[in-house]
Backbone:
């Protein structure tokens, strides 16, 4: 259904209309850069990133969780391994600093993020107090006694699966086949993408509408859940997934907490697509709409 | 006719052999994967994908990486069809280590 038709039938506040409008605006503003990227023009990616930079002076606050909080997280995860939480080294922190600075430049909300390396072989995030109130409320009971919750950040990112025991070496991480040189950036863009979606009022609802529409309108959507069953087994048990021609079926995943849909994999994966020229090119070729949607979210506040 | 065969042994820590044939050339890559799967990926990327000007970068999460590989192969090879490859056993990230309840990957 066309955007104009939805506008007429459902009004200008309809999430189904809003995602279409956002994607169209992104296409008009940034489509020329995606064309260059898609055509493998050398400067395409750098031109896109330059164009995405926003007119603000926000400086992302990157903070690091305490050993006490790390120990609590291991208990929360019922972690039974021998690995102790890792203090991130200064070079790693410098790397994180550079990545979050780059990320902050292309989005319209100020970020405050806690990082840590706690659970090995896994990378994940928690939305925290600066998430939209409904999402923050869903996590309050679980996280209210953690210092990183009291510090009022957008969220916590556990980089344990990225870091090796010696703190600096690329391990197998989460993106197991990724390029080590850009591995941390890809993973952090993905996780920070979750934080952004959780921190922008209405963003998750608009994302849900996009997922639902693509699920409904796709000729491939025979039955929701088959993709999850085939590709992910039990790893996504309890989560919902929309099927369509996504860059990757993982992008159809939505998370719930206390019966509230908190975030999707649509925005996080889209931002990951913006983390490097080759990711941007792959996604621009295969799923331009999702990449445009992440760009559209970068314009929201 | 093009042929693509991906053989993964039942023990993923043992040898993985990748044989790729396109219309114009044939490449046989045998990799002894003792510790990490990325070695096969790096060889594949260097020797085949770059030649074809294509990119293969799985999303964070890595889940479905091998589906992605199949997609790229599909793009590379005109004669690719479901009968032209075989995966005996594909790596999977299922059964990963613990994650706190409510954590979002």
Residues:
């Amino acid at each position: 259904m066309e955007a104009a038709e939805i506008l007429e039938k459902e009004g200008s506040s309809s999430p189904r209309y809003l995602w279409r409008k956002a994607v169209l605006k992104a296409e008009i503003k940034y489509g020329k850069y995606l064309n260059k990227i898609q055509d493998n023009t050398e400067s395409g990616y750098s031109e896109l990133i330059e164009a995405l930079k926003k007119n603000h002076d926000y400086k992302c606050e990157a903070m690091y969780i305490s050993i006490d909080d790390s120990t609590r997280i291991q208990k929360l995860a019922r972690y039974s391994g021998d690995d102790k939480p890792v203090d991130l080294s200064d070079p790693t922190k410098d790397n994180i600093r550079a990545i979050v600075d780059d990320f902050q430049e292309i989005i319209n909300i100020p970020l405050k993020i806690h990082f840590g390396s706690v659970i090995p072989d896994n990378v994940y995030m928690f939305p925290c107090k600066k998430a939209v109130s409904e999402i923050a409320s869903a996590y309050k009971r679980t996280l209210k006694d953690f210092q990183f919750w009291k510090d009022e950040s957008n969220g916590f990112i556990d980089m344990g699966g990225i870091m090796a025991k010696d703190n600096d070496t690329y391990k197998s991480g989460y993106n197991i086949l990724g390029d080590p040189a850009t591995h941390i950036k890809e993973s952090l863009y993905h996780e920070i993408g979750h934080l952004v979606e959780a921190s922008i009022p209405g963003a998750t609802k608009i994302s849900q509408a996009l997922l639902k529409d693509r699920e409904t309108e796709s000729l491939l959507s025979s039955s929701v859940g088959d993709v999850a069953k085939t590709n992910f087994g039990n790893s996504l048990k309890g989560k919902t997934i929309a099927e369509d021609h996504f860059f990757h079926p993982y992008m159809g995943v939505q998370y719930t907490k206390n019966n509230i849909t908190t975030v999707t994999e649509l925005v996080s994966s889209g931002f990951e697509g913006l983390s490097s020229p080759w990711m941007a090119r792959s996604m621009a070729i295969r799923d331009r709409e999702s990449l445009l949607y992440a760009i559209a979210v970068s314009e929201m506040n | 006719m093009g042929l693509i065969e991906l053989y993964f042994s039942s023990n993923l820590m043992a040898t993985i052999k990748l044989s790729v044939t396109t219309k114009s050339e044939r490449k046989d890559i045998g990799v002894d994967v003792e510790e990490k799967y990325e070695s096969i990926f790096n060889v594949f990327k260097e020797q085949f994908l770059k030649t074809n000007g294509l990119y293969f970068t799985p999303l964070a999460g890595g889940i479905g990486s091998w589906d992605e590989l199949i997609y790229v192969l599909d793009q590379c090879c005109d004669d690719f069809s479901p009968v032209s490859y075989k995966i005996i056993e594909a790596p999977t990230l299922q059964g990963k280590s613990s994650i706190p309840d409510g954590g979002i990957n």
Remarks:
- The two ends of chain B are 41 Å apart (CA to CA).
